[in-house]
Specification:
Order of helices and strands: EEEHHEEEEEEHHEEHEEHEE
CATH architecture: 4-Layer Sandwich
CATH superfamily: CNF1/YfiH-like putative cysteine hydrolases
Shape: globular
Number of domains: 1
Radius of gyration: 17 Å
Strand content: 25-35%
CATH topology: CNF1/YfiH-like putative cysteine hydrolases
Helix content: 10-25%
Oligomer: single chain
Largest sheet: 6 strands, mixed
Distance between the termini: 17 Å
Number of strands: 15
Structural class: alpha+beta
Strand order of the largest sheet: 1-2-3-15-7-4
CATH class: Alpha Beta
C-alpha cells in the first residue's frame, strides 16, 4: 500500500497508487507524470483524456477548473466534461466516472476507505488550499455525505509537490504568505527575514494526523517537483501550461472497466 514504481509507456511516465487490500478492485488511482502525452495535452484535461483513450473506454471524466479553494464535487455525470465547475476536490464512490485534477508544484492528495462503503476523495492541496483548510473542509464534507465515517479507517497518499528546499514566498505585503504563517503549523514555516520558507508536505501530514488519521496509514511520495524536472512538471521551474494529470476511480463499478494504464 504505497506508490508503485514509475512505468514508461511510449515515453509517457505513469505511476499508480497501490491500494490497501480491502480496496483492491474498488480503487484505481494513477499519476501521469512528465511525458509526451501530457506535453501534447498542454494542461487541458479534455485533450489529455482523449489522448489516453478515456472516452473510448466509456469512462466520463470530471475535470473541474481548479481555483486554489476548498469546494468539493460529488461524483455525478452532471459534472463530467464538457462541464467544468470550479472546485478543488472530488468525492468518488460509484465507480461510473473518473475524477481528475492537474498539478505543477501543488500536492495531489488522495484519501480513501472502504468504511462504511468504498469511497475516495482526491484533493488539489497546494500552499493556498492547505492554508485555507481544504483538508478539514474535506473531512467535514465526508462526515456530511458518509454516515458512519471514521477518519481512523482512512488511508492517505500525499503525491509529489514542491519541497521546502524550493518554496519560499516574500514576507511583506503578501496576504497569502500571512495566511500561511497564521494557519499552517508553526513547525512548517521558517522566517528568513524578508522571505518565508514553507514545507507544504509536512503541513498536510500534520493536518492528516490532527483529523485522526494514524501515522502508519499516511504514504508520502517524497519527490520535489522543482528538483526533478525530468520526471515532474513545476510551475516555478518554468512549466506554465503542462501539468501532471491525476486520475482516480472508486466504487463497486470500478472492476467492470480496466483502461490500458490500469494494467501496466
Amino acid at each position: 500500500m504505497s506508490f508503485g514504481p514509475i512505468a514508461i509507456h511510449n515515453g509517457q511516465r505513469i505511476q499508480r497508487i497501490r491500494p490497501p487490500k480491502e480496496l483492491e478492485g474498488l480503487l484505481e488511482a494513477s499519476l501521469f507524470l512528465r511525458g509526451p502525452v501530457m506535453d501534447r495535452a498542454g494542461g487541458d484535461p479534455e485533450t489529455a483524456w482523449q489522448e489516453l483513450g478515456g472516452p473510448a473506454a466509456g469512462i466520463p471524466l470530471i475535470a473541474p477548473i481548479q481555483v486554489h479553494g476548498t469546494a468539493i464535487l460529488e461524483e455525478a455525470e452532471l459534472w463530467t466534461l464538457p462541464s467544468r465547475p470550479k472546485a478543488d476536490g472530488i468525492l468518488l464512490s460509484k465507480g461510473k466516472c473518473a475524477g481528475s485534477l492537474r498539478f505543477a508544484d501543488c500536492f495531489p492528495l488522495l484519501l480513501a476507505s472502504c468504511h462504511p462503503r468504498p469511497w475516495a476523495l482526491m484533493l488539489h492541496a497546494g500552499f493556498e488550499g492547505t492554508a485555507k483548510g481544504i483538508l478539514s473542509c474535506a473531512v467535514d464534507f465526508l462526515r456530511s455525505r458518509t454516515p458512519g465515517f471514521r477518519p481512523d479507517r482512512m488511508a492517505a497518499w500525499i503525491g509529489p509537490g514542491i519541497g521546502p528546499c524550493c518554496y519560499e514566498r516574500k514576507k511583506n505585503q503578501d496576504a497569502k504568505t500571512a495566511l500561511g504563517m497564521t494557519n499552517l503549523p508553526r513547525s512548517c514555516w521558517t522566517d528568513l527575514g524578508d522571505r518565508v520558507r514553507f514545507d507544504i508536505r509536512e503541513a498536510i501530514r500534520i493536518q492528516l494526523l490532527t483529523v485522526g488519521l494514524p501515522e502508519e496509514r499516511i504514504f508520502t511520495h517524497g519527490l520535489c517537483t522543482s528538483c526533478n524536472p525530468h520526471l515532474l512538471y513545476s510551475y516555478r521551474n518554468g512549466d506554465r501550461t503542462c501539468r501532471t494529470f491525476f486520475v482516480v476511480r472508486s466504487g463497486p463499478a470500478v472492476h467492470n472497466i480496466h483502461p490500458w494504464w490500469e494494467n501496466i
